[in-house]
Amino acid sequence: MLHVHIVEPQADKRAAIKKMVQDMGHIVVGEACDREEALRLMEQGWPTLLLTDLMPPRLEGLALVNQVYEQRIPVVTIILSDSTRFDYVRQSMQAGAIDYLLKPVKGEELRRALRRAEKRVVYLHGTHRAFVQAQQFFERLELLQPGEFIQRHAELIQSIQSFEESHQGERQGLFRLLYAKWHYMLKLHGLDFEEPFTWQGEDEAIAYFRKLGEFWIARSASPADNSVKLNVKRACDYIRENYQSNHTLAEVSGRFGMSVSYFSVQIKKYTGYSFVNYLNRVRIEKAKELLLQSNLKIYEVAGEVGFDTLQYFNRVFKQAVQMTPGEYRRSLGI
């Protein structure tokens, strides 16, 4: 079953096309009379099929299909036209349309075109699923508490990142549409996020969306809300459970959907320590437990808790405990 947007300037013809599509078992989820209205509809919710008139003389329908193609939007497109001009047909195919149907559209021709569209939608299923996930996220945006917001937003970004390298174009298209959707929502709420979005690579795009999410929290969340603290607590729990790994600030902040700068501030506010100092404190507490085992040498303890060198372990331990690991052992009679 297809979810169809119909773009047709004339209301009576649009109604006739709508009835044909519905009679064939598909759902019409949007109707527009021009390109501008069609784009606005696509910002609010994404279909699986865009069925659009060519819209001469400016060929707005062709421009719309071409925009879908260039931005790698996972929407199948079909063009309807009164013209048999070969250059129009050729341009439509170059813009990614799967069919070019002459008006008035015959039922059997439309049925065959919709069957082809269904096969193409299967191919685009993974990408479109990310679209649906984004749509569901924005539908609940105002209901999300900051902690849940950060988690859901991170999951959305990760779902886009999960596309294989061979689908680089689709990933870029999804990030660009995420940008469009975010700014549509900010505009609805009278908010202006001034940082420009320039596609220089995925790392830059991800950092941009994290900052944008933090901007949303800062403008929309109640100061009394403790959901952000809950998310930082989850990050601290993760550190405590995985203290042996060579964590970086960027890795942990990214895992929990926060930018480096935002997470740095929040973990210091939550624990009273910087990220590195908190990680080292966790490791030192574990080292103190291991030093109770007389069969372990000090360099073995250092390695067990994640320190690369004995020298660094000794220095950090002394700063935290006010004595060296050896002195600590002797103070316990070991």
Summary of the model, kept short:
With 334 residues, this protein is of the alpha/beta class.
Topology as a string of helices (H) and strands (E): EHEHEHEHEHHHHHHHHHHHH
CATH A-level architecture of the largest domain: 3-Layer(aba) Sandwich
Structural class: alpha/beta
Largest sheet: 5 strands, parallel
What do we call the CATH topology of the largest domain? Rossmann fold
CATH class of the largest domain: Alpha Beta
Total domains, how many?
3
Which residues form runs of ≥5 with pLDDT under 50?
none
Please give a structural write-up.
This protein folds into three domains: 3-123, Rossmann fold; 127-223, no CATH class; 230-331, Homeodomain-like (Arc Repressor Mutant, subunit A, Orthogonal Bundle), CATH 1.10.10. It has helices spanning 11-23, 35-44, 60-70, 86-94, 107-123, 125-139, 146-161, 168-188, 202-220, 227-241, 249-255, 260-271, 275-290, 298-304, 310-321, 325-331; strands at residues 3-7, 27-32, 49-53, 76-81, 99-102. Helix content is 62%, strand content 8%. It has 334 residues and is an alpha/beta fold. The chain has a five-stranded parallel β-sheet with strand order 2-1-3-4-5, with helices on both faces. The radius of gyration is 28 Å and the shape is elongated.
